[in-house]
Amino acid sequence: MTQQEPQKLTMEMLMEYLASGEKPKEAFRIGTEHEKFGFHIPTRTPLGFEGRKGIQSLLEAILKDPQSAPRGEPWKPLREAGKLVGLASGSMSISLEPAGQLELSGAPLKTIHETAHEVRQHFRLLRRFCGPNNVGFLATGYHPFYHWSTLPQMPKARYGIMRNYMPTKGRRGLEMMHATTTIQANLDFSSEQEMVEMFKLALAITPLVTTLFANSPFLEGKASGALSERSLVWMDTDPDRSGFPSCVFEKDFGYEKWMNWVLDVPMYFIHRDGEYHDVAGASFRDFMSNGLLGHEATIIDFENHLSTVFPHVRLKKFLEVRCADGGPIKFISALPALWKGLLYDETARQQAWALMDDPSLDELNSFQKEVAIKGFDAVYREQSCHDLCASLVDLARDGLVRQGAKNDDGEDETIFLRAVEEVVQRRQTPAERLLWKLNTFWDGDLQRLWKSRVD
């Protein structure tokens, strides 16, 4: 019997792929991802990959310890060219960003109470393995001390391809790869129409969420003049694949429009038999029609390609919201709580959309740049960013109250909004809090930042 030829990848198959993510509302979950910079405490040098106290050794130690397994599911190694570059346990994984930023991609969970528990468990795990080796972590959205080019490079082939391609598009793509961290939430949708509503709203309020989580005011050991240097970096990264996709605000936006936008983003690589092949700049449309390097396009190729588009909001089988700076634990839990309150409640969605009142792409780009520098002092249509953020947090609180997910003590998920409520009440972003500490408690000595705890 001859082996059947694989079916040629079509637009209809890609549409079905996206639609397969639709879930009934009772099955909605939320996933949380967060990154942080590791460093050696005695020398204050970045945590590299190799060596007895490097990242690979940390991952090997976690892998070998049966007590480290989350929910009783043992960690499985993720290796590339024989090197341990990540761990996976069920739907959770620990992975490495290009300069060794350690990322937890959390499991899809029903409540933020579960998310907060997952985050605490992760940091307990890191303390247990990193404490004896004098390894610590910084919780800022942009590396506050080192130039991106002096940070270590992880031995993952896809990152090598990206490093070669990034300088051809935008000026700060390599900084994005090596010197930034984020907190990200992943959310479900029940239909194409609901996805459209959620996608549009998430993009529209991106500048407000950027402000609430702005936490990257330093560049190479000095105040940069911005509150979210990370956001400015993203605004000068590859314009083909980042920012605010124009298609989302078109009247007939849906799966097909998104597919067309994604297919117009140049490729980075294809992955076959454990190897990454550099095809940077190639067209995925052509790949689907004519093949590439003797290979036919598959759904896995498309999934890989989707992972290389970087707008503020990204659609896979779920929505990823990606505009927040990395930060401490209380903000890691606050980010999915904010999004859950806004996107999983229809009333909150409608009211939050009314706040921004059908923004244009030009308005969003301008507002995003302004909030990255000015934070609450930025202005949108004669309204202060602070007032808009205060209203947004109130709407998220109301949305969580209506959803009514309580812990064993009878507390609902609004307890996780306290971090951003405090930001609004103080009228002080996390970045401004750091700058205030620098000029008061730290007597102008930024080196004190090394002793600030992630948790």
CATH class category of the domain at 11-265 and 309-333: Alpha Beta
Structural class: alpha+beta
What shape does the CA trace take? Answer: globular
SS element count, helices? 17
| Strand percentage | 15-25%
Radius of gyration: 21 Å
From the 3D structure, determine the CATH topology of the domain at 11-265 and 309-333: Creatine Kinase, Chain A, domain 2
Flag low-confidence runs.
Answer: none
**β-strand number:** 18
Mean pLDDT: 96
Query: How does CATH name the architecture of the domain at 11-265 and 309-333?
Result: 2-Layer Sandwich
Euclidean distance between termini CA atoms: 60 Å
Q: Describe the sheet with the most strands.
A: 10 strands, antiparallel
Please estimate the helix content: 40-55%
Please provide a brief summary of the model.
This protein is of the alpha+beta class and 455 residues long. Helix content is 40%, strand content 16%. It has a domain at 11-265 and 309-333: Creatine Kinase, Chain A, domain 2.
Q: How would you characterize this protein structure?
A:
It is a single chain. With 455 residues, this protein is of the alpha+beta class. It has a domain at 11-265 and 309-333: Creatine Kinase, Chain A, domain 2 (2-Layer Sandwich). Helix content is 40%, strand content 16%. It has 17 helices and 18 strands. It has helices at 11-19, 55-64, 112-130, 157-165, 173-179, 192-204, 206-212, 229-235, 255-264, 284-290, 299-306, 329-343, 346-356, 361-374, 385-403, 418-426, 430-439; strands spanning 30-40, 45-46, 76-80, 83-89, 92-96, 102-105, 135-138, 182-187, 218-219, 222-223, 242-243, 269-272, 275-278, 310-311, 313-315, 319-325, 379-380, 383-384. The strands form 5 sheets. Strands 1, 2, 3, 4, 5, 6, 7, 8, 15 and 16 form a 10-stranded antiparallel sheet that branches. A two-stranded antiparallel ribbon has the order 9-10. Helix 6 (192-204) packs across helix 13 and helix 7 (206-212) runs parallel beside helix 14 (361-374). The model has no long low-confidence stretch (mean pLDDT 96).
